[in-house]
């Protein structure tokens, strides 16, 4: 159980449940192939059955870490910092992004959008999930919509979500990894018939990097 002082810091965003942080190549979406420092925040109640980072779900397993420490580590590496999870918007991202900006970092977030938007972001990748749909604040601000395709019905869900994001959001379809062969073939065919969409792949898994 957290002390009262630590809990207050977590509540205001001065500390966050840090699962892991690492410097690697962005593997998905619009910025695929570019270097970035990833900050993975623990805690998620969206509960996707195919999630490949289920160990991130329980925030209590990941120690609250001072935002100043997180920013100091990130600033040693890349100009671009990607905040992911878990579901990072479960927490107040305002202080983290403020301090990253003070250190001249570009701030990116990967989110399901299930909670209201907090923080200042240069790039918002919205990856909506049926279990807990995005909030209006994230639909309105998303730069990129990335829908995971696990079955044929997900194409319908993707089109529904595309109607809800702002007109400038770039649209991506990405195969769920365990069905990548079958779904990639369907996605390629779909994008050729619906060229407003683009294909996203988890290239970091093909490259065998984090």
TrEMBL record:
Residues annotated to bind substrate: 25-27, 40, 84, 210
Cofactor section: [4Fe-4S] cluster; S-adenosyl-L-methionine; Mg(2+)
GO molecular function term, any single one: magnesium ion binding
Substrates-to-products reaction catalysed: 6-carboxy-5,6,7,8-tetrahydropterin + H(+) = 7-carboxy-7-carbaguanine + NH4(+)
One Pfam assignment: Radical_SAM
Domain Radical SAM core: 31-210
Binding-site residues, [4Fe-4S] cluster: 44, 48, 51
GO BP annotation list: tRNA queuosine(34) biosynthetic process
Free-text cofactor note: Binds 1 [4Fe-4S] cluster. The cluster is coordinated with 3 cysteines and an exchangeable S-adenosyl-L-methionine.
Domain of life: Bacteria
SUPFAM superfamilies from the UniProt entry: Radical SAM enzymes
Assembly information from the UniProt record: Homodimer.
Record-stated family: Belongs to the radical SAM superfamily. 7-carboxy-7-deazaguanine synthase family.
Name assigned to this protein: 7-carboxy-7-deazaguanine synthase
